[in-house]
Amino acid sequence: MSRAEARALAARYAAAFEEAGAMPLDCAILQSAGTLLDLYGEDIRARAYVTQDPALGERMLRPDFTVPVVQMHMENGAEPARYTYHGEVFRRQEDRPERASEYLQVGYEVFDRADPEAADAEVFALFSDVLAPEGLRAATGDIGILTAAVQALDTSERRRAALLRHIWRPRRFKALIDRFSGRTPVPPTRAALLAAADPMAAAGPLIGLRDADEIRARIAALREDAAEPPLSAGQVALIDAVLRVSETCPFALERLRDISMDLPGMDAAVDRFARRCDRLEARGIDVAALDFEASYGRTSMEYYDGFVFGFYAEARPDLPAVATGGRYDALTARLGDGASIPAVGGVIRPDVLLAVREGAA
């Protein structure tokens, strides 16, 4: 596999996206580190290459295209709008050295508020069409359904916010569920801290960025949390049931309808899933054979908040997805300075697709 082959393949897909109505974009390779840190926190440093510009300050080599495309659109884009782009992205792979840290992406993004589920279907069907000759397996999910399930829990706003913040970190999410439900006992050190009349009285000199008032506020929050009743076993079981949904779309929809009878706050999200299935079918997708996993997409970049999808080579489980995508409405609100617009898109990795082809040769 050569870089020239990957570039040629990227250009071919970009041309197909232009034929579908997308306007080509060229995004800067150096992006504002401040914007990405505001979005993802310090975690992004573990995945990105950071450099210092004497005039512009801290910058990052482009870890993906979606953030700069959203910024551009929210500043001066007309709507509805469709964009395509292709070029290198850069991700540190310290825990997976076998994977490339620099690779090509080619993408297609839709900003359209008229019918979000129709836009979901448009993007998925376009990717399905251009990748049809490759014999890939498609997987779909919906982060919005799990989000709605968490928001419907009978617990404090503080606990709901903590769970929502860690939806994209499955281990941390499970640890919080276990703690909030009482399945995990309070660590002895925390129990001693909460039992002390004045935990700060025996504190040593302050080390780190938090001052005494911030530490007291954190202790008060821990005490409030400890005083809350645990999540009921029934509610924990409902969250577990949502996460276990892994069926073809019609059966997944039926199962989620059953769960939503006990978590009515899920109804709107499940209704959106049903409408998406109708729109996909209208686009010629065999919904009856399309896989849906409620937990799919939880380890991806954190801007996805609704429909998510991926295309994989089943014969090459060692490779990442050939294509991934999803809906990121909340990202447009965060980068839009108060404005927002429903948005959905996806990317193809030509290098992965060429590796799949070489393996099949």
Separation of termini? Answer: 12 Å
Question: Which structural class is indicated by helix and strand composition?
Answer: alpha+beta
Q: What number is the mean pLDDT?
A: 87
Specify the number of helices.
14
> Over the alpha carbons, how many angstroms does the gyration radius reach?
22 Å
Residue share in β-strands: 15-25%
Number of domains as seen in the coordinates: 3
* Elements, N to C (H/E): HEEHEEHEEHEHHHHHHEHHEEEHEH
* SS elements, strand count: 12
CATH class of the largest domain: Alpha Beta
Describe the structure.
- There is one protein chain.
- This protein has 361 residues and is an alpha+beta fold.
- It has 3 domains: 1-135 and 321-361, BirA Bifunctional Protein, domain 2 (2-Layer Sandwich), CATH 3.30.930; 137-154 and 232-312, no CATH class; 155-231, no CATH class.
- Helices cover 45% and strands 17% of the residues.
- It has 14 helices and 12 strands.
- It has a 9-stranded mixed β-sheet, with helices on both faces. A 3-stranded antiparallel β-sheet has the order 2-4-3.
- Strand 3 and strand 4 (57-61) form a beta hairpin.
- It is globular, with a radius of gyration of 22 Å.
- The model has no long low-confidence stretch (mean pLDDT 87).
Strand-helix topology:
Elements: H1 3-19, E1 23-24, E2 30-32, H2 33-40, E3 50-53, E4 57-61, H3 66-76, E5 81-90, E6 102-111, H4 116-131, E7 137-142, H5 143-151, H6 157-165, H7 170-181, H8 188-195, H9 212-227, H10 233-244, E8 246-248, H11 249-260, H12 267-282, E9 291-293, E10 307-312, E11 323-327, H13 329-335, E12 343-348, H14 350-360
Parallel strand pairs: 1-5, 7-9
Antiparallel strand pairs: 2-4, 3-4, 5-6, 6-12, 7-10, 8-9, 10-11, 11-12
